[in-house]
Amino acid sequence: MAFFGQIIKTFLETKHNLLPQEPSDPAAAQENQLRTLLETAKDTSFGKFYDFAGLLEADDIRKAYAKRVPLHDYNRMNEFWWKQQRKFPDITWPGKPDFYALSSGTTGKKSKRIPVTNEMLECTQRVGRAQAESLANFDLPAALFEKDILMLTSSADLEENKFGAMEGEISGINVSNMPGFMEGYYKPGLEIASIPDWDSRVQRIAEEAPNWDVAALAGIPSWMVMMLRKVIEVNKLKNIHEIWPNLAVYTTGGVAFEPYRKSFEALLDHPIIIMDTYLASEGFYAFNARPETMSMQLALDHGLYFEFVPHDADGFDETGTILPKPKVLDFREVVENKDYALIASTPAGAWRYMIGDTIKFTDKEKMEIVITGRTKYWLNVVGSQLSEEKLNAAIKALNEATNSQVKEFTVGAISTEDGNDYYHQWVVGLESGELSEEEAEKIIDAHLKEVNKNYKVARTKALKGIKVKVAPADRLYDFLEQSKKKGGQIKFPKVMTEEKLTELLGFLK
């Protein structure tokens, strides 16, 4: 009998039943988060410059905060504040950060350095505990709570910078600061997780896999599929449940799961619970808290404060660049099924910070969201207005219509030979089997015309057609490897510039 597992399950269920899983008063919770952040940082350079002490005396603290403190993207925050914080204490948050998260970027962009304070780590762990407690909603067997959890992260081998802080990708930092009670359950363990080379790390995981009893997986789906394939190959299996029969939960995140669903499920013997998370370099913002949905509950009461900019003409121009004076809303003013750019203030010393992601509320009463894309992953060169969500849906339609397994893709606008018009160039990474490029062009084009009126209009004007290049998915990852961007938390960009797309096409030749 799973004695300790039953104790853990009973504890989670009891806490779940006795305590609310979301704030009973979200508005008060968010105001409290903002007030706590301002109070803590009022004596920092940033706090004094923007008079946090005065803001704390305002009748409406949220309106006063939005009026006095401007929106910041990474470049602005880094140039005016975070660069100084690497050398001096008390710039945007008390003390100096012990860690910096190197963002994965996309193809060849210079890594950003996002401060990760001890308070930010605590905040992330609070959100993680809230998601763990929500497992009471899923009626899992008690034995599962005694099994191993395999987290596929970037390397936990952090490097010390010249200012004495440790640097690495956020998943590696989080693993390096894992709570003590997790050590007995966490796989592959810090030794293997610290192997810098992705392929060597995955090889070791595959070799050690028979020694583990994995019940839960966590990681970005593209790399999770590659890792599971390697475990199956090395151990000569038909599916992953032959070696991990108790595998019951997969926590995904980082990118939309749907384009990878078919490839992932093909590696299983039977369906498992799939939970989404919103964990970025800047914070852990939302998590899947109940079954029968992939929507995620926004973390309103865990140390974070949120605002939202409409991802339309009220907030952005047609290139995806935020307006000089965009409309900014708090969560009380948002509506369901509309895209918003997420703005967060955090205990890492990020203030009214534009993450770069777009989200939409699927259930405002439950405060549930889904990620719809990136503010810059917005293909609108000729007015087609294609969000990442619509691009993902087109690939899903392609997979269903052709019974294909397209795992990765990217798209961009390329000018015609005369330079007067454009066409959309798609590159799709196929997991297995064959796919006709001509058939793919027809299916994607027809789907987008049907679901997006702006695309349909654009196709009668300057958008003259689409082209599809089919390649093995591994070749797309090889392209990333050129810039040392393979594995871990790295994401293949869904939209590329004409220059980068031309480079990719040349690589594939």
From TrEMBL:
Q: Where is the GH3 middle domain?
A: 299-363
Q: Which residues form the GH3 C-terminal domain?
A: 390-499
Gene3D superfamilies per record:
N-terminal domain of ligase-like
Molecular-function GO terms, alphabetical? acid-amino acid ligase activity
Q: Which GO terms describe its cellular component?
A: cytoplasm
InterPro entries for the chain: ANL_N_sf, GH3, GH3_C, GH3_M
Give the domain of life. Bacteria
Name one matching Pfam family.
GH3
Protein name per the record: GH3 auxin-responsive promoter family protein
Per the UniProt entry, what species is this protein from, by scientific name? Neolewinella aurantiaca
